[in-house]
Amino acid sequence: TADTITAVDVLVTSPGRNFVLLKITTADGVTGWGDATLNGRELAVASYLRDHLAPLLIGRDPARVEDTWQYLYRGSYWRRGPVTMTAIGAVDIALWDIKGKTTGQPVYQLLGGAVRDRILAYTHATGWDLPQLLESIEVRREHGFRAVRAQSGVPGLEMVYGVSRSGTGYEPAGRGAAPVEEPWDTDAYLRHIPRVLTRIREHVGPELKLLHDAHHRLTPGEAARLGRALEPADLFWLEDVTPAENQEVLRHIRHHTTVPLAIGEVFNTVWECQTLITEQLIDFIRTCVSHAGGISHLRRIATLADLWQVRLGPHGPSDISPVALGASLHLGLATPNFAIQEYMGYEPLVHEVFRHAWSYADGHLHPGDAPGIGVEIDEELAARHPYEPAYLPVARRLDGSMTDW
Ligand code: GCO
Ligand code: MG
């Protein structure tokens, strides 16, 4: 007889930053973990899961992963959107975890088995000025990284997205009752950044993969200009050049530059990826497993992308918990057009709360061979670090008007 779901629990924990976790328990005593973290809007997803999905899941057969996905997606009527899709994603990841544990297989085996030995990772290097940034890149290379995202300060601005003045890792979410306000000046950025990335390329030589994130700030014209100016720096990708709403503008940008483009960390479904993929307006799709409906749905996005030679480079900053990172790695090991995984790394306390089978070595990640996703949570330790309000920053132009962060 089929196993049934007997408990669905939501944990909100803050070991240095907030994470929302879903724990599904079955009558046979199997537990599966999912990640429902939506940076700066954590409690909305916690409530969606606790108040609306948990009661629907009790009594269901945990083996019916796809049917549960369909039930929750089609059954909400109010489809898509980050809150809904993150909640569904958490359920999906937890059910794949259970399926792996029940069958004694790591999830990548259930997805068809490994198509590669390991997954290329990229990490973040930040520096306020060029010497600091070059030093930061050097440190990452010494840790084995072959791909690095470089973000630099901009003269005239007090702070900039992606850069900490101290040279330590950048954590965008700030604790407190309201968001930090960052200043922004597109002209200063556009004057400065091409020179920085070109100098980095001269300094590091041809092999290191260099990435840069424009974080949704440019107009199509500015994006096209930046793309052209960055061609000598031979980037692996230029990310999020324009805000995500107007995808048609990518046709214009594409017409003017061959710089590889990556977009999609804020997308939640295959429908938002469709135009960019089928018109080959991007080279890399950035959707991540926790915000885009779980393994089942990211796999659909990957399949569509594969038809159009678009590859996956999923989002993986500090707000993607080690559970979601593990899920992404299982998919990555079993998916032909998976190119690279963002890996910002975690504070030591996060590694204590999340005991994970996945591992990093020599610039690459591997999901490990534990049954399921292979990430277990120390619930006692997690409970000692309760939720704290935290927000992503907002940005204002120099005249005080709001712009995209
Ligand atoms: C990235 C992202 C992050 C986001 C953050 C928002 O490419 O890693 O842009 O830095 O800003 O994840 O929650
Ligand atoms: Mg980004």
What's the SSE blueprint?
Blueprint: E1 5-13, E2 19-26, E3 31-35, H1 42-57, H2 65-74, H3 82-103, H4 107-110, E4 119-127, H5 130-142, E5 147-152, E6 174-175, E7 181-184, H6 186-204, E8 209-213, H7 220-230, E9 237-239, H8 249-256, E10 261-263, H9 270-278, E11 284-285, H10 294-307, E12 311-312, H11 322-334, E13 341-342, H12 348-353, E14 354-356, E15 359-361, E16 364-366, E17 375-377, H13 379-383, E18 390-391, E19 394-397, E20 402-403
Enzyme class: lyase
Keywords: Lyase
EC number: 4.2.1.8
- CATH class placement of the largest domain: Alpha Beta
Question: How much is the radius of gyration in Å?
Answer: 21 Å
Cα-to-Cα separation, first versus last residue: 52 Å
Overall pLDDT level: 97
**What is the CATH superfamily label of the largest domain?**
Enolase-like C-terminal domain
Main sheet record: 10 strands, mixed
Number of domains: 2
Strand content is: 15-25%
What ligands does this structure carry?
D-gluconic acid, magnesium ion
> Any idea of the CATH topology of the largest domain?
TIM Barrel
Total beta-strand segments: 20
The total count of helices amounts to 13
Poorly predicted regions: none
**Helical content band:** 25-40%
What structural class results from the helix and strand content?
Answer: alpha/beta
Shape: globular
- CATH-scheme architecture of the largest domain: Alpha-Beta Barrel
